[in-house]
């Protein structure tokens, strides 16, 4: 007795349905894996962005703290002028500098009892660096040139060998000398109050 066509086709139809179902199950995981990879990449980017922002914030806080310290130091230098027992402010005529004892190796040493405005020509890590700048300044015609070690003076940042020019009773006179020093090729020159008393 011949098998009806419908029954003969049944195993093929069943196999097609089963294979189709299996095929749709295997196609789903790659889409899920792609979504998960995209989410992980986004999380990784956000973590990196957050870390970079935290670093910028930390750097900004450090800069703000440094600016605050510099402002406090500058305020102390301008308001502390002439303060402290035993310190005296040098009074000199405009454009000239007070005499100072010889500091050896061609530089005037800053007197231990004098508080005055001066021009910092250079702050060097070594004494030789300061002496070299002092010699250049003298060669350029600047007067009252000398060297000092900043750690001996509380109004200066510690740890530097400083070449300076002049001792003045006012900031304006020191600013004038600083301009002269810069036009003579000492581009780093700036005015600063120097005192042996903090």
Notable features of this structure?
single chain, 198 residues, alpha/beta, Alpha-Beta Plaits, 2 domains, 6-stranded mixed β-sheet, 3 helices, 6 strands, 51% helix, elongated
SSE arrangement:
Blueprint: H1 5-79, E1 88-89, E2 108-109, E3 114-124, H2 127-139, E4 145-149, E5 161-168, H3 171-183, E6 190-194
Parallel strand pairs: 1-3, 2-4
Antiparallel strand pairs: 3-5, 3-6, 4-5
**Biggest beta-sheet profile:** 6 strands, mixed
Determine Rg (CA atoms, Å).
Answer: 39 Å
Overall mean pLDDT stands at 73
Low-pLDDT runs: 17-21, 80-106
Please report the distance between the alpha carbons of the first and last residues. 121 Å
The rough form would be described as elongated
Briefly note the CATH topology name of the largest domain.
Alpha-Beta Plaits
* Helicity, as a percent range: 40-55%
Q: Which CATH architecture of the largest domain would you pick? A: 2-Layer Sandwich
Specify the CATH class of the largest domain. Alpha Beta
Give the helix/strand class.
alpha/beta
- How many β strands by DSSP? 6
Number of structural units classed as domains: 2
Structure notes:
The protein is α/β, with parallel strands linked by helices. The protein folds into 2 domains: 1-79; 88-194, Alpha-Beta Plaits. The protein is built from 3 helices and 6 strands. It has helices spanning 5-79, 127-139, 171-183, and strands spanning 88-89, 108-109, 114-124, 145-149, 161-168, 190-194. Strands 1, 2, 3, 4, 5 and 6 form a 6-stranded mixed β-sheet that branches. It is elongated. It starts with a helix and ends with a strand.
